[in-house]
Amino acid sequence: MSTNVWSLDREPYHGDIVQGGLGNCFLIASLQSLASCQPQLLRSIISVSPLTCFFYRQGQRIEIPVAIELLKDEIQYCRSTVPDVQWPYIIERAYSEFYGGRYDNLI
Questions:
Q1: Residues 66, 23: Cα–Cα separation, whole Å
Q2: CA 20 vs CA 40, 42, 51, 68, 76: distances in Å
Q3: Structural domains of the chain, count
């Protein structure tokens, strides 16, 4: 699986995201809203080198590293409609770590 974070020819788009089998529509809808209204803010969540996502808890910036080997091509996780673009999965994976370390905590 490729680890391209963003599409090379356009900004993130709300139609890029396909929800997987997890019941985390609250997160997917939030990402779609950001992609639609503020794609640059969405881009600011991810640092590519090293692959890290940034979230805030009670005003404190929290950095969540995302290991490349964790990027899987499984239908239970969200994914992009654009082949080889990984930003939806990267953010979903990092948010699961931020929210307690497991995908089970998101549902």
A1: 21
A2: 24, 20, 22, 19, 4
A3: 1
Convert the pLDDT of each residue in 15-52 to its tens digit: 999 998 888 899 999 999 999 999 999 999 999 888 99
Residue 5 lies in a domain: no
Q: Which residue has the tokens 């599409």?
A: 7
Distance in angstroms (rounded) separating the CA atoms of residues 37 and 69? 31
Domain that holds residue 29: 15-70+77-106
Would residue 3 count as lying in a domain? no
How confident is the model over 60-97, as pLDDT tens digits? 999 999 876 655 556 678 888 888 888 998 999 899 88
Residue 86 lies in a domain: yes
